Amino acid sequence: SSYSTKFHSPVDSVFLKQRAIDRAAWTLSDARSVTSSSYISILNDIYCRKTKMDAAFIPTGVDEELIPDRVGLKSEERKIVFVGEFTPEYSDDFFKIFAHMINSKKIKNAAIKIEIIGQIGLNTSRILPLAQSLQIEKYVEFIDHIPQKEVYKRIADSFATLLIPGPKSYWPILFAKMIDYIALAKPVIALVPDPSEARTRLQHVGLGVFIDGNLDEASSSLANFLDGATTELSINLADQSQYFAKQMTQSFAKIFDRLISS
Fold first, then answer.
1. What is the pLDDT of residues 118-145, one digit of tens each?
2. Nearest-angstrom CA–CA distance, 139 and 79
3. pTM for this one?
4. Geometric angle at alpha carbon 109, from 104 and 110, rounded to 5°
5. Which residue among 45, 47, 199, 219 has its CA within the 20 to 30 Å range from the CA of 25?
């Protein structure tokens, strides 16, 4: 969509053509689907002054064949996993919160490892200098691209996962990494806007561990979770089911059946 500056051309004449294609696709299609429910209101606000268009929310589905058997923790280490690239749009707030938690000795179990899985050149260049400046580099491990099945094994073996764009970034986005985390039924330590698509979906499925508030409040929330002092999360299995490829396929099939029969 040309809504996002990442995907439209910086050349005005080309951008106007892209915007016209977007408008036609949204307003003239017989059916619409979105990977984030926030896009419905965004695209209606942009393209529909009077009649608002409906769309089906169909998140990207995880292939069940790739999901490993659940792997239990084999030590007292609290391994938390971040998958993907720590792009320039991400805030550094999580690492400041983590450092404050360590330095203020809020946490009892300090056997923690942050495992960063993704493009190692980008991630080390963005995260390592920050971790060193905060003196938490010994807690961070970088892993380059690995097959998706191995990524899922590492997520399954983790204590929790990370979704940390920051409190002001990417409010309408439903992150692909978050769908993986949900499919593997892992708690998601989330530093995300309020409100946001990610927060809403995590609240619905029951896997969100939100580290909100000022530095001291957020670090206390993080420490309480890692120490096991917070209430155990209860996953909504019915909501979780929509994040699998089987459900995604069924959702599209319903749209096609409706179009054929109409």
1. 999 999 999 999 999 999 999 999 999 9
2. 10
3. 0.93
4. 60
5. 199
